[in-house]
Design brief:
The structure is a homodimer. Chain A is of the alpha+beta class and about 575 residues long. In chain A, about 35% of the residues lie in helices and about 20% in strands. The first copy, chain A, has one domain. Chain A is built from 18 helices and 20 strands. In chain A, strands 3, 5, 6, 16, 17, 18 and 19 form a seven-stranded antiparallel β-sheet that branches. In chain A, strand 16 and strand 17 form a beta hairpin. Chains A and B meet through helix 3, strand 2 and helix 10 of A and helix 3, strand 2 and helix 10 of B. Chains A, B: It catalyses: gamma-L-glutamyl-L-cysteine + glycine + ATP = glutathione + ADP + phosphate + H(+). Chains A, B: Belongs to the eukaryotic GSH synthase family. Chains A, B: Homodimer. Chains A, B: Pathway: Sulfur metabolism; glutathione biosynthesis; glutathione from L-cysteine and L-glutamate: step 2/2.
């Protein structure tokens, strides 16, 4: 740390030429509206809970649909009470770039028609989630369904950034694979984290055990999602995080793109939008294809794909879409089991074959196991170890899982670190361009700066869940406390440049009700990677997820408002 | 009345050669199991409520999803407690024809897998209804959805009967059109009913008014559904009723056929069933096409199709599927309004043009207006009259509506009556073959017989709703009472031969739970008819609806158990 980045465009922090202004910390390529900083409650969140986020948030795979504060009266309504606030915010905080989609120009009757059509479309086309207010909705399919929350219109997104995000996906895939093979790097980088984070510590233990027994994974499957925000200040597309386990919404994200295309087909003319500018979204097909090819590489037609699930999963339909594609397009069967069930019914044969209830498992696809709450007892850890030891293809393996941790993200952002894993200089430059400023807390200079300007930083605990991020004055308070205590607790956090995305007025639809509010968006780009020994079988970008969230509360990360599924409109 | 039918195969009742045995009343063509009478709680129901039918039932277009008596615990289960009862019933009552699908042979684990798959399939493919236990589920799309109740497997149905039901559909279409043009016949036939049935009386008043003003309908659109049961005793496919208004389930019925085909594609081999034996079901496409062609005949590209709906509609997705097909395949827009809203916002221009909120309506498609409860005030009646007076195409017109009443069904079953409307003798013979015994209560011979053997008859009030039918000893009690009173109340009823359909063990899935029980089924065949003056544009059979219902209660019509959507498996 402490070495300045070479590129003036990179979100680096020079330790020698520091003066505490936002522009020097994160130099802008464009200064159309210098000094205007959009408030963000959304940046630096690991996961956007698609709901009332006052509940504890989980990573990627699940989200909350508990009752929102809105009182739900008889029918859906479009409360436009936020309208004045929107104007006010525009004046107070400024919007660096006028959105292409001017929702103020759309009349209320048309909005209501579109909302009705969108709700019907969602219901008929399986854009649904389990409704937390209905018993059994997280356990039994077909019971207690509600449309997934969605944005009525796609969010404008510059085509150049979209292309960049697509281009880097295969490079990130490759990077993760290379990093996963460097056991010593993973162990060393995570050694301090291990001491203060019990959950990561258990994962590292599994990793150590695999190193000890010299476990190799010939067939390696990665289904990743790299999340970005477009920073208004630096005009850079900055990576929030790279998910290597349980990347959620490959199923529903495609449907939202279809929904928006369908709406624009009928209403596009009225609002001046062209459905062809919503990029095609093939995440569910591509993920299914990757799982199917991994299954093919394993080479036992009778073997099953095991989907590791949480005991209660309100986002099950997203998962079911993927399994349906696997079944219908590739004739590959899946079986859904919790970690506890796997502990109970799983076994390994002497040759490494994983059996579950006597049936051979070729591929283990994790949609659980990423959070401490997924391991309430030793049974779940036993199941994880059992699968890791087996010869089944793990998506992800423990190495892939660790390679996606925040600490590793921060380590990879260090100067010259990418060069350790990648050869192609252009590739390296592209990745680096996407890196936000990332620092460990053993860097005293950056601590000093963060205490002076806490509004420009986010403290992110290694522990998953955007709700745990620390913003604003709390950054200062916590940093001072950690300095005083002098404990190792600082290793549990990284510091990240705070990103200030564009705020746009948006129609957000949830529980049949449309709300107009200011919102910010986060782009996730899916990547699939499959190799068997030296043969790379798949390495591609495969679709995207846009999530949009009300940006009405100033602090507290994702603690206020709710996020909805969205798509992008290229401009 | 009182004249015996010519064909020995017809379900006639000879007044001269009467002896009170079932076989003589309704002669069998086959006597494989003479003397075995399957109990039926299903026959003679106007509508099969897909739910707990202790609630008041409505006709065709809606059904109840209120809480079933089953206690819903954590997860879906397959209670096989009925198994012993099933065996017992086989012994007590006999089953005339062994079903092709032997569900006893399917192991429990396989059933659970199929149930899971079916629930997921339903959720992803829009085979859903509003869940009555969730607020707003009947008003706002996308909120409070639950899978539509379905039978896990299709019901075996002899191909010859299926073909007959398809063949007669266009003949019934033609018949209804002819009858609708004979205003005097309708008025005369319904004159006694008018005196005792307030609802039918209001419909007849509208009809009279249209006759007075010499209102003619050049473009006539019928979207009918003729419902049948296969009588085990006579081996005849007997018509229960012909729905000319608000024929429900054109949307969901197609999906159930798809669901069953999908299940058989994956599990068919294990249970010895071939998915290709489920006939294609195109009801939603054909109905949409008929509506679109009527819209085309009306010839105003800017005009809308008005869907008349109930204020609360838990079967809205069935309707939305039809409207989606109209929009996506034919680019025809629909607008949904209640009768009260139409009264408020509707008007007729001097040239007869129907406007709703200033927008021209080309076709009025009724999914409400068939039951007295649809007209809680004069406003609704005003709306009905307004639409009838307009030049919009009505589906159905008041004449089509009346032509589908039970009284007219009974009148048409009288000897030589079909000859009044149709010329082709073969066509007439085919229709007559499907007529169950139907009598008015002014026939003293049949009253005598029904008092002696009430188990062989059903008393059906003109009033809609299967829950109002009278069975068993109640037939005797009511007939004796009516005889004593000597009032005109007898005109409110018709008597119908009781049909005894085959009872088969069936898996019924509702609210995520699979129940095994004995069930009976009713086949509905959709027909579409469109003409413009002398030009017949459409006259065809277009898909089917199978409904299956537990047959566990001996009496009380549809008062016990619940019905589910089903499809047919030809053998």
């Amino acid at each position: 740390m402490g070495i300045s980045y070479s590129s003036p465009l990179s979100p680096s922090l020079s330790t020698t030429t520091l003066n505490i202004t936002h522009s020097s910390l994160f130099p802008c390529t464009s200064k159309a509206n210098p000094g205007t900083i959009s408030d963000s409650t959304f940046s630096h969140t690991n996961n956007i809970s698609l709901n009332n986020l006052q509940k504890p948030t989980k990573k990627f795979g699940s989200f909350y649909y508990c009752s929102h504060n809105t009182t739900c009266l008889g029918s859906k309504i479009v409360p436009l009470k936020c309208f004045d606030k929107v104007r006010e915010m525009e004046t107070q905080e400024g919007i660096a770039q006028k959105p292409t989609i001017d929702i103020h120009g759309i009349d209320e009757e048309l909005v209501q028609k579109m909302v009705d059509d969108a709700l019907v479309w969602s219901s008929l086309h399986g854009l649904v989630v389990g409704d937390r207010s209905v018993q059994r909705s997280g356990k039994v399919p077909g019971v207690g369904m509600v449309h997934a929350p969605f944005s009525l219109l796609p969010v404008t997104f510059p085509e150049s950034y979209w292309k960049l995000a697509c281009e880097v996906a295969p490079i990130f895939n490759e990077l993760i694979d290379r990093v996963s093979l460097d056991g010593k790097f993973l162990q060393d980088a995570l050694s301090r984290t291990k001491k203060v984070d019990a959950f990561t510590s258990r994962l590292i233990d599994i990793h150590s055990k695999m190193l000890e027994i010299n476990k190799s994974e010939d067939i390696r499957l990665g289904l990743h999602r790299s999340d970005y925000m477009l920073d208004e200040q630096t005009k850079l597309l900055l990576q929030i995080e790279l998910n290597t386990i349980s990347s959620s919404f490959p199923g529903l994200s495609c449907l939202v793109s279809d929904l928006h295309r369908s709406l624009l087909k009928y209403y596009g003319e009225h609002i001046g939008l062209d459905s062809s500018r919503i990029p095609g979204n093939t995440s569910v097909d591509k993920f299914a294809e990757a799982l199917a090819k991994a299954w093919t590489e394993y080479n036992n037609p009778r073997a099953l794909v095991l989907v590791v699930v949480q005991p209660e999963e309100h986002n099950m339909y997203d998962q079911h879409w993927l399994c349906a594609a696997l079944k219908e397009r590739h004739n590959v069967r899946t079986i859904r089991k919790t970690l506890a069930e796997i502990d109970k019914d799983g076994e390994i044969l002497p040759d490494g074959t994983l059996l579950l209830g006597g049936k051979e498992i070729s591929v283990v696809y994790f949609r659980a196991g990423y959070a401490p709450t997924d391991y309430p007892s030793e049974a779940e850890w036993r199941a994880r170890v059992l699968m890791e030891q087996s010869s089944a293809v793990k998506c992800p393996s423990i190495s892939y899982h660790l390679a996606g941790t925040k600490k590793i993200q921060q380590e990879l952002a260090k100067p010259n670190m990418l060069e350790r894993f990648l050869e192609n200089k252009e590739d390296i430059a592209k990745l680096r361009k996407c890196f936000a400023g990332l620092w460990s807390l053993d860097d005293s200079d950056i601590i000093k700066k963060a205490i002076e300007r806490p509004d420009l930083f986010v403290m992110k605990p290694q522990r998953e869940g955007g709700g745990n991020n620390i913003y604003g004055d709390d950054v200062r308070t916590n940093l001072i406390r950690l300095q005083k205590e002098g404990s190792e607790e600082d290793a549990a956090y990284i510091l990240m440049q705070r990103i200030f995305p564009m705020v746009s007025p948006t129609f957000l639809v949830r529980e049949g009700i449309c709300h107009k509010d200011h919102a910010i968006s986060e782009l996730g780009v899916y990547g699939a990677y499959l190799r068997n020994k030296e043969k790379v079988i798949i390495n591609e970008q495969c679709g995207y997820l846009m999530r949009t969230k009300v940006s009405s509360s100033n602090e507290g990360g994702v603690a206020a408002g709710f996020a909805v599924l969205d798509s992008i409109y290229l401009n």
